[in-house]
Amino acid sequence: MSQELGPGDLASLRLFVDTVRLGSLSAAARAQRITQPSASEALRRLERRLGIELVVRTPRGSRPTPDGARLAEHAERVLAELDGFLAEARSLRTAGRRHVRIAASYTNAEYLLPPVIARYRAVRPEVVVSLAVANSAAVITRVAERTADLGFVEDPEPHPDLATRTVATDELVVVVAPGHPWARVTAPLPAAELTGTPLLLREPDSGTRATYERAAHRAGRTVATPLGVMTSTEALKTAVRAGLGATLVSRLAVAAELVAGELAEVPVAGLDLRRELRAVWRPAHAHDLTAEFLAALRS
């Protein structure tokens, strides 16, 4: 005999309370949607656990013993408290799911996501979408540590706890000020010349920097020590326009400047600078709004 109840005994406790309330084990079984033999066995098991006879079975129904009547009152209060606890938890969980926490790399946050967020909010105005901007490594960390529901990065390294999906394709382009010598080249710049030239670059943990370094490595090249390191694409573009040097950035980031002639694109031979923009999330903790937001990307 044991007086400790396990998680499986909660159903038996509900059955006991219903039996007392309805005055019939068969009626309680119907209320719990189980067979009467299963109900009889569950009630006997609860009595064995407690070491107390709870119910007397008669041809006219079931009635509680004096001890059973006392315990039924306690059990009703316990189950009411438990039901209230579960209802509050559901309410909090539902309220939490009216908020989608997104972390995104600079390229995704500045050029890919704004129209998607606007499209999503047009059909789900009650949902709050928050967007935190960080480099790709920090985005991965936020999603893994569950401080973001969904992340957007460039070509992420595999992570054992995260699922990933390609949402767009992109490529890096080399850009210079119109007065830079490379703006006047008539043939693609050799990979060796590009990788051997100190450039203005993003910080090492950024997806843009990682894409360039991986492309150089695949081509058997080593990237020169940067001329300067900046933590945002806008800062790089401003520096290039001022004539400080050349940089590599997403084509999405310089489309307007290339059309306006504020920057010049330098074609490069021998380097594959294409990349995938990807969503990352924790499958074990994803909720409906995560899937809805991903669907808005596809549309």
Automatic annotation (TrEMBL):
Entry-linked SUPFAM superfamilies: Periplasmic binding protein-like II, Winged helix' DNA-binding domain
CDD domains per the UniProt record, alphabetical: PBP2_CysL_like
Record protein name field: LysR family transcriptional regulator
Keywords from the UniProt entry: DNA-binding, Transcription, Transcription regulation
Coiled-coil positions: none
Similarity comment text for this entry: Belongs to the LysR transcriptional regulatory family.
GO molecular function: DNA-binding transcription factor activity; transcription cis-regulatory region binding
PANTHER family assigned to the protein according to its UniProt record, in alphabetical order: HTH-TYPE TRANSCRIPTIONAL REGULATOR, HTH-TYPE TRANSCRIPTIONAL REGULATOR CYSL
Record keyword 4Fe-4S present: no
Domain of life: Bacteria
Lineage: Bacteria, Bacillati, Actinomycetota, Actinomycetes, Micromonosporales
Domain HTH lysR-type, first and last residues per copy: 9-65
InterPro entries, A to Z: LysR_HTH_N, LysR_subst-bd, WH-like_DNA-bd_sf, WH_DNA-bd_sf
Organism: Actinocatenispora comari
Keyword Cytoplasm among record annotations: no
